Amino acid sequence: MLDKADGQIFTGNVRLVHAVGMHARPAVKLTKLAKKFQAQISVRVAGAAEWINAKSVVKIMAMRAARGSTIEIRASGSDAEVAVAALVDLIASDFPDGT
Amino acid sequence: MQVGATGLAYRGRTASIGFAHGPFVRVDADTNGERVAGNLAEEALALRAAIDTASGQIADLAGIAGGEAAQILEFQVALLEDEDFIEAIFASIGEGNAADVAWRSALDTQIADYNSAADEYLKARSSDLADLRDRVINILRGDGGQALEIPSGAVVCADDLPPSRFLEIDWSGGGGLALLRGSPTSHVAMLARARGIPMVVQLGAIPDVGATALLDGEGATLELDPSAEQVRLFEKRHESHRKSRASARAILRRPTASWRGERIKLLINIQRVDDLEHADAQYADGIGLMRTEFLLTEQGGLPDEETQLRAYDAVLRWADRRPVTIRTFDAGGDKPIAGFTRDGEANPFLGVRGLRLCLARPEIFAVQLRALARAAVHGNLKVMFPMVTSADELEAGRKLFSDVVQRLRAEGIAAMLPELGIMVEVPAAALAIASFKAGFFSIGSNDLAQYVLACDRSNGELAPLMDPLHPAVLELIARTAEHGRRAGISVSLCGDMAGDPRCLPALLNCGLRELSVNASALAQIKQTIDRLSGGGGLG
């Protein structure tokens, strides 16, 4: 755990159930939601070497997360805990419309 | 591919069904036009302004188009708002590259990356990126924004057409779309289907000639400067398409389908309870396949007994006395479920899926069996197990089911063991069909074909090999039907083949008399059987 001025790092992980994996629409929804938070948020496919900025749609698409893979999320910053919970919920609920 | 000798005729792949006869218009993207670059600061400002203008244009388009189109354009907006991505382009300008060069290079890298993907869905997204690339470059050149001049009802031809340009065209007078490349899974194909605009893709090279065109979305053909004869044949196909849709609806209302004097039972497949709301569902002879995986993906984790019972009861109530065949959880393979299926199987289609998984997770399976045993009291319920390889698995499932019924009764809850059958989708099961003491068989032709032909059905590259009419597949279907006929056990088929009119003659000739299709295909299948019975061809 990093010793940052703004404190704790929050983490979560969730199974990607979307029929076609992390494609355009889910990626747009994910980055839109991530941008609502001040926290720095990173994601990766479980076990991948690199953490990816959850606010970059290009990088989220490049992650090529397939259906059934587990997505790890970590965030730091004032609203990090809420951010992780919101993103886990979005992915677990299969990116419902209107979010 | 050239298919005719009179006018020029080409064949591609269907992306959207329908017919268009109109002026032929090429809208190839312009590739020339140089712009003079300014200094670093001017270039950065130029790109910033172009991005803002593009964002505004796309937002306007999305506003006009609404719905699905707006969602498609959202991806482009998200890209323009991706700071990591845009910053890298400004960094490249800082290194001395012109705005358009830096922009193009960044977008081309992404496009090449998407195009190199094995996944057809991702490949199709590259046209969205090309759309955005060209829009910003046109703005930088100072010629962005003007709409395409397309006459009403035209057959528009392009290499590929990005969604935003599709939306700029006025389709209110009809027309069609003919793409030399393109993909049936692209965003623009989705838009064309939603608007009812015929669209054919992957036509290959077409000479830059032609004043009028005939586009047949069903036959996937494009004919240029057609002869009177070609026009006549085209109009005939168009007319018969129109009529067949109207008469299919009329035939649906007749009580039963029959072929050579034998009754053909037509049942429907449902994915979830809501599918029963389809207007044609009421005309079905029952439900041949109710999938239950939807219960596993709803919020709140694995479904409890009461939730499941409500779903099964709703379907039985709808069916009244008609039979309802419910398939137990068919998870695994390409249907992973958190907390249920196995992670990291090297070959999930050959892994712990279907009944194998349920037997390995009896605590989850028992909940479903309890709900089914309780529902069985309320209607004409049959239950089938998916992905069965050996008779022992069927017996193990039956044993669990019987135990569940006994336990429910001991608890004072009304329950009964419904009729039990199996899906025939593993070649071994089809070959050893007589070893199963099943109440009925339902052929799952999608998986059966995938296993017999050794072709992953999600791999588009194998599509030409993935032929359900391969003699080996038909042989297994015929053997299963023959066994059923001799032993007096009902055999149905619930895969995509049943809903494909081209497969119907083969299926009927194999001896099948029960087919289960999606409600939306019911009318066409009933009509096709009627036509085959009348001695006609497929028309």
From TrEMBL, chain A:
Entry-linked CDD domains: PTS-HPr_like
Domain of life: Bacteria
UniProt keyword annotations, A-Z: Sugar transport, Transport
SUPFAM superfamilies linked: HPr-like
InterPro entries to which the protein is assigned, alphabetical: HPr, HPr-like, HPr-like_sf, PTS_HPr_His_P_site
Ranges for domain HPr: 9-98
Function: General (non sugar-specific) component of the phosphoenolpyruvate-dependent sugar phosphotransferase system (sugar PTS). This major carbohydrate active-transport system catalyzes the phosphorylation of incoming sugar substrates concomitantly with their translocation across the cell membrane. The phosphoryl group from phosphoenolpyruvate (PEP) is transferred to the phosphoryl carrier protein HPr by enzyme I. Phospho-HPr then transfers it to the PTS EIIA domain.
Protein name: Phosphocarrier protein HPr
Native species: Bradyrhizobium huanghuaihaiense
The organism's taxonomic lineage, starting at the top: Bacteria, Pseudomonadati, Pseudomonadota, Alphaproteobacteria, Hyphomicrobiales
UniProtKB/TrEMBL annotation, chain B:
GO biological process: phosphoenolpyruvate-dependent sugar phosphotransferase system
Enzyme class: transferase
Listed Pfam families: PEP-utilisers_N, PEP-utilizers, PEP-utilizers_C
EC number of this enzyme: 2.7.3.9
GO molecular function annotation: kinase activity; metal ion binding; phosphoenolpyruvate-protein phosphotransferase activity
A GO cellular-component term linked to this record: cytoplasm
UniProt cofactor(s): Mg(2+)
Compartments reported by the entry: Cytoplasm
Domain Phosphotransferase system enzyme I N-terminal: 11-125
Keywords: Cytoplasm, Kinase, Magnesium, Metal-binding, Phosphotransferase system, Pyruvate, Sugar transport, Transferase, Transport
Active-site annotation: 187 (tele-phosphohistidine intermediate), 494 (proton donor)
Keyword Transcription regulation set for record: no
Family statement: Belongs to the PEP-utilizing enzyme family.
Xref: PANTHER family: PHOSPHOENOLPYRUVATE-PROTEIN PHOSPHOTRANSFERASE (PTHR46244)
Function: General (non sugar-specific) component of the phosphoenolpyruvate-dependent sugar phosphotransferase system (sugar PTS). This major carbohydrate active-transport system catalyzes the phosphorylation of incoming sugar substrates concomitantly with their translocation across the cell membrane. Enzyme I transfers the phosphoryl group from phosphoenolpyruvate (PEP) to the phosphoryl carrier protein (HPr).
Name recorded for this polypeptide: Phosphoenolpyruvate-protein phosphotransferase
Organism listed in the record: Bradyrhizobium huanghuaihaiense
Lineage: Bacteria, Pseudomonadati, Pseudomonadota, Alphaproteobacteria, Hyphomicrobiales
